[in-house]
Amino acid sequence: MSAQQNNFFKYSVAEGLAQSQVYCMESDQHGNLWMGTQGGGLSSFDGKVFKSYTFKEGLSSNYVESLFADGNYLWIGTRNGLTLYDGLNLKRFYPAEELQLSVTAFHRIGNENLLIGTSSGVYIYDGEKFLKKELFKRLRNSYITGFLEDSKGDLWVTSKNGILRISEGKSHFYNQSQSLDSEEVTSLVEDKSGNIWFGTLGGIELWNGKSFQKIKQKDGLSSDLIWDVFLDDDGRVWIGTQDAGISIWNPSDSTFSYLNDAIGLCNNHVRSILQDDWGDIWIGTSGGGICKYFGQQFEHFNVNDNPADNFVYAVSQDTFGNMWFSVSDDGIAKLDSAGIQYYGENEGFVNQKSKAIFCDSKGRLWFGTNGSGVAWFDGRDFHFLKKDDFPIGNWTRDIVEDEKGDIWIASASNGIFKVALRDSVINDLRLVELDSLYVGDSLVIRADTIITDTVVTLFETVQYSRQNLLPTNKINALYFDHKNRLWWASADKGIGYLKDEKKIIHFDKNEGIPSNDVKCILADSFDNIWIGTAGFGIARIQETKDSFEVKVYDENDGLSGGNVYLMDFDNEGNLWIGCGRGVDQVSLDVEQNVKEINHYGQSEGFYGIETCQNAIFQDAQMNLWFGTINGMTKYIPGTEKVNKIPPNLRFTGINLFYESLRSTPYAEWLTVENSLKPGLKLPHKQNHLGFEFFAVNLSNPKNVQYQWQLEGLENDWSPLSFANRVSYPNLAPGDYVFKVRAFNEDLVGDEKPLQLSFSILPPFWQRNWFVAAMLFAGITLIVMIFRLRIYQIRKKAKVKQEQLELENNLLQLEQKALQLQMNPHFIFNALNTAQSLFLSNDQETARTLMSKFAKLMRAILLHSRETSIPLQHEVDLLDNYLSIEQFSRSNKFEYQIKIADDLDINEIMVPPMMIQPFVENAVKHGISNLKKDGKIEISFSKKKNNLECSILDNGIGRAASARINGQKAKGHQSTALKVTKERLDLLNDEKNNSTNLEIKDLKHSDGSPAGTEIIVRMPLEEW
């Protein structure tokens, strides 16, 4: 058996890495990891997917020696020159023949020149050309391995021929003649105390500011062959060796710790070490790919060299602190300070699965097997219960102990067994069946042995089954709560407890339990019962005297799986749940409701992945042990770390009608970072956009969640989602801002979201210029119709021969002209109001107003051809006119049109536009200057042989109106009234009516003006 610190997650060719020899690594501005391999080219890794680049994609060579992240760019040094990656494409650099060699190191001097180390000296790149740096004459043709600008401003250059230091313009060269043991320097780093660590192929050379100090294998290094030295965020120095893994120097206690393949390192030949933005350490090896180092939150144990036999079905601890566990079909094993000891047939046990291990209060270990019954271990020998009391063929699922020291055993097919242990003094051992007792401490009893006055333990077995209280024989788990009640969980009948060993209290799906197949059961400190089910998650059961409440939690609440195999509480009250994809740590609030769920799977360091049923144990040190199908895993409390670093979010694509924007005519608006330049305006038909984004979180890449919002369409952020793309079809014209943010596994996100803006242009018929043009065209058309109609009327009048007819027709034509020549202010106000509505995008109201206006104009034109019209038409015209006036004057007055019950307005005929001038006069001179809301009431009634129309307003009165109008230029409306009155007079004279128009000034009780009433009388004509 091998114990593996499950601090590593390995990536190699099988996971997508280009090649298993990783000689250099770098992290870019997005948090992506870049790896240079020896023959496979370059690989990038975003936490989920590897992407490879080779000579075919533009690399100078598939052998990558060095990497350097330089702002938005990545410099790639190969065995055959330089390559530059700009975020989209690779560009080969062959600036000079001499640079077609190995490029081994980079260093940026401030924001200006780039130093380039090669296999033949140092070059400098000024942004345009490459020059050999003459300052490094001692290293002119040397193989350069690294650069460092230390905290004092000195520049260090390492090579295979020694070390060069440039301080205040002076050069200092160190090689074997200047105290170096090895001139072949491979790497260098400065620690937090200002010391510089040089890795060589002869150990460490430590520069303390004045001289070199040697650190070798005899001083604690795991090897003297060193390829990389690295300083982490905690100030520890990591030293990668060629044959002994990593040595880690901890400055707090000046000691070394070690990582190697024996505890999970993917290979002992370490070539590069890097710490990512989230604090995890990445280790590049020669032959083993790369490893991600987690720390010591989980410790994993492989119990068998054969992965197929790595099942651990049960875990427990004895009174000496040793861990006991089952080993697939090979029996059991003990883990102590000396290592692993296995127990099978040769050691007195059986080569079978053991699904239950339990240590009782007297230190005896109990083992439940699959087929050989139950055995206990006295410290030296194994003893099996006799066949009559406990069937050998029985499959054991769980073993517990009550407060009296009795042992209770759950069987997969025969119910529950109680094994009562009673100490007794036996005078003659021959009187007792030997396989039903336990004598002393590891005393071997033979059939012919006679011992008197000996204390022995007698076993008395009681079975509970379907024939004796239980509703089922298929028992999965047992648990004693704080009231010493024995709870049982079954495979087909739910759960229950044994009351006073005489009565069963039973609960199943009828009481709200999500499933009758319950895998595990336990109680919390509040006596709530928790169960894990097959396929339906977990349930909390709160039992009181009068109620039985069940609260279910499943995958919709955040559990990683519905099949729950094991459960236990840790020392801090967190509930741990094992399923098919790892374990969940469930935090509970004070009322024992689920507050938060953290999942640990393979990516989080839980290497065992799928847990085994009830294979969980909390040891004396409060560590949790889990049995899995891939060995045994120990959880070490207090090692959890909260990820406070938000994911590194970026846009990965923008689509227009499912096609990348780079493939459309709008590609120029897309940046290298796949965002948008400011000012993009798309036609109204280009309105289906999709956005793709991705956040790098190397700490836990699978648990990144996203939120997004499209301002201009959505008022709130979307719910958290694992989806990293969203589409918006049929966007209306307008301005939009798309925002997205990402959250890590601990729901930490960047406060400032990533965003981009764009606009959808309206169609031409919705633009302001088009609306204004249409309004102008409408006004022009009305004026042209008006002038054309006047021309037609005047032409028709000239052909009249009879003077009386001529005068009468002229009068009528003047009146018709006046019908069309409505108050220009009214027309202007109506059209101007409509234009304002269009410009403010209130198109529906504007269309309603224009419809009323068009209807009014159409009625006027139509009626102008008639000498009389039905009263209904006149009423409709008045109603339409007043509604337009009302709208144009912002509803500052109200009106009412009343028709007497004895009038048939469809049969009564009246001259067209006879009443409108008086109504218009009431609006203009009566209520327009009111400081309060105006009222106009129009009434039609029958008085003798006349049709009488009353126009009543609550205006300022004629006197006040005259004073106001005296200060203004007179308009044509007074002419319209005059002509209308003459026409009315002519009409009434023909019918011998004396009084046709009556105007009354209304007064309040105090004599103040109360308005005006105009009464118009016309001869009553019926159709």
Which descriptors apply to this entry?
14% helix; mainly beta; 5-stranded antiparallel sheet; 74 strands; flat; 1023 residues
Structural class of the helices, strands and pairings?
mainly beta
Low-confidence runs (pLDDT<50, min 5 residues)? 1-6, 429-453, 817-821, 969-973
Let me know the largest β-sheet: 5 strands, antiparallel
Q: How would you write the strand order of the largest sheet?
A: 1-30-58-57-56
The count of helical stretches stands at 8
Radius of gyration: 48 Å
The portion of residues assigned to helices is 10-25%
If you average the pLDDT, what whole number results?
Answer: 85
Bulk shape: flat
Instruction: Give me the count of strands.
Output: 74
Distance between the ends: 115 Å
Q: Kindly estimate the percentage of residues that lie in beta strands according to DSSP.
A: 35-45%
What does this structure look like?
The longest helix has 31 residues, at 768-798. 14% of the residues lie in helices and 40% in strands. With 1023 residues, it is mostly beta strands. A hairpin with a 2-residue loop joins strand 59 and strand 60. It is built from 8 helices and 74 strands. Helix 1 runs antiparallel to helix 2, helix 3 (824-839) crosses helix 5 (871-888) and helix 4 packs antiparallel against helix 5 (871-888). The radius of gyration is 48 Å and the shape is flat. A 5-stranded antiparallel sheet has the order 1-30-58-57-56, with no helix packed on it. A 5-stranded antiparallel sheet has the order 39-40-41-43-42, with no helix packed on it. It has a 5-stranded mixed sheet with strand order 68-70-71-73-72, with helices on one face.
